[in-house]
Design a protein that fits this description.
alpha/beta, homooctamer, four-stranded mixed sheet
Chain lengths: 226, 226, 226, 226, 226, 226, 226, 226
């Protein structure tokens, strides 16, 4: 571990070897200075993909100061370095945003899956209030190895999608909605209670977690599988 | 008020005149003896419809002892007297049960609407995990003046139905489901956050309330309406 | 769908045909730029009413830039276009605000019902702490086909009003109140537990939903009703 | 302290001297044997009033074995010894039960106030769904020095009563109601958020606490008051 | 009602006659303009005491513009007009603040009781972590007709005080504390569960409600009391 | 649909064709009679696997009366028919039970995955209080295509396992634990907040859902995957 | 591990060596047969102390069948084997039960500490409603190296005790109380928010955890301490 | 008590004598002026250690104006005076921060323990997602007399650490994490449900409380201990 992050972080650079996926840097609880120091520390390892998630403007500036060519998706509050994602392998990850307000979180999921080595597609604004919209995209959904569905409010879309496809659905609740959504609690509970089986729930607004899980589900099958 | 209910109940026999709908007797918190005394008291008023809701076997026996010809729907835990519902008026009330386990509560709603003077129809087991089932009943749904949808688990069906019809949907959450349904909290929140407008939510497992509200919505329009 | 909203929204312009009511644009989770692009897209459809709800000052400016003659009710955080509401039909919608602090949400409900084609009336500051105030308005309440009641704090007014009228009451909880109101949870629960039947609950501070539901309840009865 | 309660209880026999009110024995968490031993211990102190609250049938039998002339109100799950309440002093305590199901808890409050030395009156089944019932009892309410209001469901009655009288209202939430009453949480929150000031809230189903508080409020004014 | 508040408020100027206590103006949900208009409207009634509660700096300025001699207690976020409280009557109200952080809410309670006509005293920083502090003030507490106890964190002080005095304790939970205080939920629940009877709980941070209730409890006894 | 289930259930016999997995019959909310009728209805379709979950003794008897050779795992409260699971395909599903009390739910997951066509292995009693136990099974864990981890109490084991393997972990919270586990809420929240990515959460005690999701994740990769 | 517990439990017999304290067997989620098999398995290790906690009558019978001389404290629902506790070392553990209803949990804590090798003392029924009771036991409290305080309801006693002694207080919330105690949530939150520092909170009704923690705190100081 | 803090604070300067530990000044709810006045008041007592916790920049400036040589740890939002901690005694306190974002709270715990007279060590970024990191520090952990573990998210680390050491673990939940961490509720519940005994839980983000408790646990054993 480089000396300049000692005292506040213990980078897990061996994680790619151990788990097959690199570590991400969750910026929200760190100062821009700490994030910048980590960015400097990973510069020596272009063989690993490093994601900086929940990166506000000051975090992004600190990263870009150290890694000027990092890819920055401001809507998703995410940076990736090296900027070019790995050559895709495994199955297709389709990311669905129920409404426009769910897009930032959906994009975080999509970028994460992409930088972890998967092909990705995005479908937007297909909430259950107009079923014809999701039914119109059935062919796209059925080409996926896993579908990520980001939804706030009633969180009903993952149930509906899971009832239409054979593959797992990663349900990503968002904090979008009126008062009784309680910051995402309503869609979270709805997704945990999905009446269609095959729904894998992650934390509220946790696009990174959803994308990571989707990438693992869609990973190339190991040799030993039947 | 008859003397023999004095001390524990103040029957609101004028309610039909005042509100247009009779009072119901909620049995759950009353002793069989109290329920029986109320049944005896209403015997003198066959001009009013009296519903006994949440009536367990002992409550039902106490009612039937006083009103032997009362209609008893044991699945719905409900008795009605006089046994014959009024001649139907107003629009059609369609009651939908998402799953078999939601049937008792759905039946309570249906019987309530029927004894308050509406035509009713029942549709069962059309949860969103198999959308083709609800889509196959679209014509039935579109003939309704109001649709009651009873659902537990993810509570997603009212959103889906509301997106398909022009009339109001009364959303009736049930306490059916695994642990994180938290006794009906999950579908309740989902219904309050329905992404399709036009959803009227009532209390968990409150079939009586749902049926009453539906009867009011489907009531014959007063003369003054345009 | 116009090209310039592709990528973040899928306008449901067929919704009026399908459901009889137009789609609304919920601005809170969208950027002013996105809202402006949607405003531009609907300009070609003056035959449809479009509502922009939860519109902050920047959202409003973006809409007015594209649709300068849109009606803007800043208190209700709502814009409507075309500015002139449709000719009213169906029954009267009476909107009641329990206290002055409930007015913005109550106005959102009223404007929604009005732009969906209903006659509306507003009654303000008639909380249950002074019953004489609501009793004094009984005649106004009894002329309604549906009453919307916006209330925070104890959320007691919908119960009281529902006990006084024959028509449905749409209960609209607001986030007004001291600490243990928990952002509207207290009135929401009170309304769900209303001891008078005939109460239809919507989400906290969701004036749009309340107005939409009221408009549907007060809609002209279809030909087939008895 | 008598030896035979040593090991599980430390009777506070000096409490009447210190606080002016005797200790009560909460039976719910104690074995019948423990309750009986306490009953035996207080037999030597007929100068103190002892209340046994939340006494199930076995607790009651154990008390009556030791104190055969104790007064037993089975509905209120309460025993009092000596059986004759003290000569009443101070103001009148009026206890109101919103519905029949609230009666047991209301009776516990009434008996407690009576055995602590107050005059009491009971009013039953005057919920806000039929306002005329509570308005018809206004004269009775206005003679009180304090009103205890027991209500479940929406918990709206204390707000309404507090808006009609000058004296404090003790709000006693009960666990009566459908699912979203959440065991009394809904009326508890409603009462804490009462829009009329002058409402003193106690614990759910805690009739003893409500009666005790009411007795204190209605106590004879000390000499020093203006 | 003066014309210039029509449209947003219905002043209850008859409340003093009806209930014996004047109405207060809760500023938090109102605009400074609305509050100013109400201030102007009450100027014609110096015979009534008007309290403006939860008044931020802009609310205060709006009131003082209309009623320049109003009494302003900025710590308590409260204004009173006319500035001179009524001649005190009834018993003494003692207000206790468990810690320094509870002082603003405690002062709101004290000012309310004072302007409703009671003598008041304040005791500060006597939390249960140092019992000697509250025991040292026992004589002061025992002179009261009612004690208001404002406390955050564990909310333990009302239980302790109620165990030491014969009169009712108004328990006023505050939102002071670390994370698991959950905005005052922890002391609120503790107070509702006070193991000493005689505790009357009000809403979190609701100093006005606590002071009003205390004033009613300590009111001069009506003629009819024994 | 056979006539004898009409009225309470709409069997989705086409689901295997549509989604690739058969429907399961959730017995908990159904009467033994209803479950028996469904069992009779599926007897004509030995080409489909039918699972009966949450089957109490009476449900099991009703199933076995119709399908005497059904496989019954009483610990898992599950029956399967036809009794012989399909020939396994895809990757290995390893099911881990953190403690002995988590075994019934873990077995439900294992049986579900097995009857949906996967190879399965069970590891028991390897909670994080003794890390050496889980570390000793690392080789077994690393042969899996997906790991299901059932845990109550602190729900920490999925985080630990996810940090040790490359494949997804299905986190299955159980309702095992002391009071503040709140019926499984504590492990549910812990799993949603797992600090290691790659954790897919399902509902509390929902072994069926966990096993179904695991079977989908470990399904043979479709031809199109890279 | 003996063969006969294979399949459902992995005994951690090395735990005494590793952690210095033996493993306990939590019976609540296990069948009597499983508990009996574990009892048989530990019979070969009389050098280790084994505790069986939350043992109902059937669990106890199963243990006593295998280990007839085991010590059985039925009130505490606990068995210990070998029956004689180790020779005490370290500091004194004082266990305080706020009320009689808290005794079973307090006894579980006391027995656990005793069988882990500490001297113990029990103090009962010293709740804060009568402060003189706890103040009278101050000398006993001050001889302790750690005090365990079991309390339900307002959970105020740990704060009070922690303010009186120099040593840590283990706060053990119990599920004793009226409705708004919410199964121990109220005292749990109060204890977490104790205004006196030095309070270590454990799970609701977890007497075993409290006793174990107390035993560790009062353990003989290792050689290296200053 | 100095005059200039009268009116808002009652300093407990005798607390060191009574409890062995000095009082701390919780700044969050106090104005800078109040904090400064307290700082001035303690200047006369350099024999006592005074900690100012939760001190924002303005609080810190006010303290430093009165006590210019006070030690200020801005990351921990804490000041100490006199600046030099007492000579350490008792056992070692090891403070562990699961992640970088937990560092501020962990530092508050460490500084508190240090100024209360203990030796301290800090270990950072050893979350359970990479078990090798915590296992690598086992020797450091085993030298402690008590370990403080600060963790957000799943709160799993205290369970893991408690399973590895013989001494008590003080579990300090932090408010770090995605939506369903609910401001620290998730790790708080996980820690209360730790499957390893020996875990003492404190309030969310309450580093001061954790450090104080740890200092008490690691205090020199009194003479009387065996």
């Amino acid at each position: 571990m480089p000396d300049d992050v000692a005292g506040f972080a213990e980078l897990d650079l061996g994680r790619t070897a151990r788990r097959g996926y690199p570590e991400a840097v969750y910026c929200a609880g760190k100062s821009p200075g700490q994030v910048g120091a980590i960015a400097a520390a990973v510069r020596a390892r272009p063989d690993l993909v490093t994601l900086f998630t929940r990166a506000g403007p000051e975090h992004a500036a600190a990263v870009l100061h150290e890694l000027p060519d990092a890819h920055h998706d401001a809507d998703a509050a995410l940076l990736a370095w090296p900027p070019r994602p790995p050559e895709p392998a495994g199955g297709l990850v389709v990311v669905v945003a129920a409404g426009t307000s769910d897009l930032p979180v959906a994009r975080e999921a999509l970028q994460t899956a992409r930088y972890l080595g998967r092909r990705t597609e995005l479908i937007v604004d297909v909430g259950v209030a107009g079923l014809h919209r999701v039914l119109a995209r059935l062919d796209d959904l059925r080409r996926a190895r896993v579908v990520v569905v980001a939804a706030g409010m009633d969180g009903a879309l993952p149930s509906v999608v899971a009832g239409l496809v054979a593959v797992p659905v990663v349900a990503l609740p968002t904090s979008v909605g009126y008062g009784a959504a309680f910051g995402g609690l309503a869609p979270l509970l709805a997704m945990l209670n999905a009446c269609a089986p095959g729904v894998a729930v992650v934390n509220i607004d946790n696009g990174y977690g959803a994308g990571h899980l989707a990438a693992q589900i869609a990973a190339p099958a190991p040799a030993g599988d039947a």
